[in-house]
């Protein structure tokens, strides 16, 4: 099934239902889709690798590498990448409230300036997103309102890493690429540039939010270049916003990269500390996983290894990272229940009786030792020594299960005593070996109890075989 097969003017993607076209750029088109398995909305970016050169294919796949490597709630999250025909389809997080360009144009039409609180909320989130990118040695190279997306709860995300570049060993980029109005002076002049170019673009976005126009405008591309390289722009009118915000905007638009503040310095400044409380807390659905993938499947905090695009595009899916959906996370299996406590080898407990001692591998605290009176009247009126049960101790070996041995009358009486609680004082002895009627009755009751338990623990008799002859109905078999 080809991705370009039209269905009501929209392409088809396996396991996804296409809703509408969100936009198009130099590297492909972006669609709003719904995943059939979890009914969640996502954005699919479709790039035609068949019509690209090998270098352009590497740039298109580079966005997948960077999206997987950057894990931050202010950067658009990666979910999946697959090849459909000759087209690379990248499933990303969907921003339901569009991009910042729409809100700037809407405010310009209605002539309603942004509140300073809203500007600080957007600016500080952009600084956090750029800080996450720069910490991984990645420069975006195309920061502009169209690549800044708004999600629920005023959460902001940086997207479109198609032309972002990963710097190694603090090298400088030299490629002249980006949107003209938001390109830094060093990019226009062909000088090596680094993370400071993103900060100049951030200043241009901040200037546009405050004035509803770009800082440098020209009639021709040459005029625009001269204005940007010369640093000629109209300052933000004083009184419209606080002096700290205006000063920060002017410093970001400096022609010298060393004079521009970094994201960390902006977030740590005194002016920004007054507005940190307005930053939204990302909900659980917008918190990306902390894991990152490498080519061998392990996780680490560095960038994903470079994805080598083979000449044969059919081999590309083998090099793409695995999918990452919150709804596909398998919950860890519940631990097995602890084994039941075993019965001591010295004392066997009848069914329903309370064990005098237990063996627990989980380290449970055993119950305290129970001591009995000095003597207990036996079944025949003979005084027997008291029984003292020490939990967790049963001789020289650990307790084992031995339910087949029949308990003795003394053991049965000991178990009965443990179950019934403290015993009354022992019966007094009568002269000449005679016992009172109450003692005789108690002895008879004890003997009956012992007999009952002996009968209860006796093995069941073997079932009597059925002696009646079995009548097997005759069945005629025909062999043909």
UniProtKB/TrEMBL annotation:
Enzyme class: transferase
GO MF terms, alphabetically ordered: ATP binding; protein serine/threonine kinase activity
Binding site for ATP: 45
Key words of the record: ATP-binding, Kinase, Nucleotide-binding, Serine/threonine-protein kinase, Transferase
Enzyme Commission number(s) from the entry: 2.7.11.1
Chain positions covered by the region annotation Disordered: 315-360, 382-431
Pfam families: Pkinase
Compositionally skewed regions (Pro residues) per UniProt: 333-342
InterPro entries to which the protein is assigned, alphabetical: Kinase-like_dom_sf, NEK_Ser/Thr_kinase_NIMA, Prot_kinase_dom, Protein_kinase_ATP_BS, Ser/Thr_kinase_AS
Transmembrane annotation, as ranges: none
Catalysis performed (reactions): L-seryl-[protein] + ATP = O-phospho-L-seryl-[protein] + ADP + H(+); L-threonyl-[protein] + ATP = O-phospho-L-threonyl-[protein] + ADP + H(+)
PANTHER family, alphabetized: CAMK FAMILY PROTEIN KINASE, SERINE_THREONINE PROTEIN KINASE
Family statement: Belongs to the protein kinase superfamily. NEK Ser/Thr protein kinase family. NIMA subfamily.
Name assigned to this protein: non-specific serine/threonine protein kinase
Natural source organism: Pleodorina starrii
Gene: PLEST010405
């Amino acid at each position: 099934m080809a991705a370009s097969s039209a269905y009501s003017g929209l392409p088809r993607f396996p396991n996804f239902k296409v809703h509408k076209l969100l936009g198009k750029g130099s590297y492909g088109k972006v669609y709003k889709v719904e995943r059939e398995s979890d009914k969640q909305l996502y954005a699919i970016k479709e790039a035609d690798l068949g019509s690209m050169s090998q270098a352009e294919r590497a740039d298109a796949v580079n966005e997948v590498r960077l999206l997987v490597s950057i894990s931050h709630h202010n950067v658009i999250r990666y979910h999946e990448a697959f090849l459909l025909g000759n087209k690379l389809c990248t499933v990303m997080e969907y921003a339901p409230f569009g991009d910042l360009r729409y809100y700037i144009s809407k405010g310009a039409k209605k002539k309603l300036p942004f509140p300073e609180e809203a500007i600080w909320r957007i600016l500080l989130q952009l600084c956090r997103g750029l800080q996450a990118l720069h910490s991984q040695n990645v420069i975006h190279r195309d920061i502009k309102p169209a690549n800044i997306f708004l999600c629920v709860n005023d959460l902001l995300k940086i997207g479109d890493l198609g032309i972002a570049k990963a710097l190694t060993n603090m090298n400088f980029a030299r490629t002249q690429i980006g949107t003209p109005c938001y390109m830094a002076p060093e990019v226009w002049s062909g000088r090596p540039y680094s993370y400071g170019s993103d900060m100049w673009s951030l200043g241009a976005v901040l200037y546009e939010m405050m004035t509803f126009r770009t800082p440098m405008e020209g009639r021709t591309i040459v005029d625009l270049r001269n204005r940007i390289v010369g640093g000629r722009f109209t300052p933000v009118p004083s009184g419209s916003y606080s002096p700290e915000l205006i000063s920060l905007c002017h410093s970001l638009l400096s022609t010298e990269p060393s004079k521009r503040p970094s994201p960390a310095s902006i977030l740590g400044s005194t002016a920004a500390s007054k507005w940190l409380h307005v930053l939204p807390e990302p909900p659980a659905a917008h918190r990306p996983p902390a894991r990152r993938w490498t080519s061998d499947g392990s996780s680490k905090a560095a960038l994903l290894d470079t994805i080598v695009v083979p000449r044969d595009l059919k081999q590309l899916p083998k090099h793409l990272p695995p999918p990452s959906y919150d709804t596909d996370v398998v919950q860890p299996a519940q631990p097995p229940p602890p084994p039941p406590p075993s019965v001591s080898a010295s004392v066997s407990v009848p069914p329903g009786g309370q064990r005098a001692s237990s063996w627990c591998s989980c380290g449970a605290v055993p119950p305290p030792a129970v001591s009995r009176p000095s003597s207990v009247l036996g079944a025949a009126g003979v005084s027997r020594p008291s029984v003292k049960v020490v939990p967790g101790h049963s001789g020289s070996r650990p307790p084992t299960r031995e339910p087949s041995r029949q308990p003795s009358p003394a053991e049965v009486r000991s178990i009965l005593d443990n179950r019934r609680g403290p015993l009354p004082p022992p019966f007094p002895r009568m002269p000449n070996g005679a016992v009172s009627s109450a003692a005789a009755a108690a002895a008879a009751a004890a003997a009956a109890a012992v007999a009952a338990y002996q009968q209860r623990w006796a093995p069941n008799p073997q079932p009597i075989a059925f002696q009646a002859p079995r009548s097997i109905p005759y069945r005629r078999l025909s062999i043909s």
